[in-house]
Amino acid sequence: MRINRIILRHLKMKLIHPFTTSFGTMRDKEFILVEAIDHDGVSGWAESVAFPEPSYNEETLRTNWHMLESFLIPIVQGREIEHPGEITGLLQHIRGNHMAKSALEGAYWDLYAKKQGIPLAAAIGGKKQEIEVGVSIGIKNSPAELLETIASNVAKGYKRIKIKIKPGWDVDIVAEVRKHFPQIALMVDANSAYTLADVEHLKQLDAFSLMMIEQPFAYNDLIDHSELQKQVQTPICLDECIHSSEDARKAIQIGSGKIINVKIGRVGGIQEAIKLHNVCQESGVDVWCGGMLESGIGRAHNIAISSLAGFTLPGDTAASANYWEEDIIEPEVVVHDGLIRIPEKPGIGYAPVVKRIQERTEYEQSFLF
Ligand SMILES: O=C(O)CCC(=O)C1=CC=C[C@@H](O)[C@@H]1C(=O)O
Ligand SMILES: [Mg+2]
Fold first, then answer.
1. Is the CB–ligand 1 distance for residue 38 below 6 Å?
2. Could you tell me the pLDDT band of residue 301, with boundaries at 50, 70 and 90?
3. N or C: which end of the chain has fewer CB within 10 A?
4. pTM (two decimals)
């Protein structure tokens, strides 16, 4: 692939519903889009999932922009990349900054698949024709509002409901949800809101047949999670604390969790996400694809990675309409009875709508190769 231009765009999109977790509320989604254009004028697209604030991990939109502009793009500039799998190695001497790396690598993956004339899912090695998806519901102002939101999403056919918890909004609210929805596939995500001091309290969640408790402890902990997993029946799912396939191997070895939420951006790109998937599959550990409130472009990448066989549980890739009045892709991501069909078109399989992208672009910068 011979790129002749990369365009970075800072977009701002208004979420239909504010999204509240244990670390704050998001009303607008600001993110970086990467467009890699080759000599034939074909574009590969990807998005950085870094938030404007360092609340999920230490990266931010601005640190990503800086890393892409000053380090990552210069490394690939003028290089003939045969396969996007090469990019992880080219960038590995740069420490961390996984979301920035992933945004660049993802654009090359989309372009590669388009040049090969195959769907991104096929380029990744995915065989599924459709994927099961769930929905992640933020912390609401009242139990009634949460129950109403759950009811409307169950009615839409989502295969799994994920609710956020934090101290003061956990055991009682889960009990209330279970009272109204005794049969639904239900999980909770704590986003690191607890510590080992809360083990006795968290044990109460075992009473509710939850699919999993996601990331109860610190974003950089494996040891305390393994201690908790020894004391609770409910499977612990790891998100923020798994930064690579190596972290997954170590977490599995010491029993930190029984399920892993894979986020392409968190682990540094599709190539590493495939490796992580393979490590988990070899150990019989289920994985599913998490979300970072992506636009349709990031959503498309999540759909592709979810087509791998080891993605055995419904992910957080809900429909575009769950987040946006209007998405920046056509067609939008739609969910029918909790299922998304894997696109058959080359690349990400959804067409970025440049007019809508430009309308939402706060700032952009071009890098000529
Ligand atoms: O709908 C989605 O994209 C998933 C949203 C979601 O659950 C999360 C988004 C970003 C960070 C977290 O709060 C949380 C997660 O940890 O999975
Ligand atoms: Mg999570």
1. no
2. very high
3. C
4. 0.97
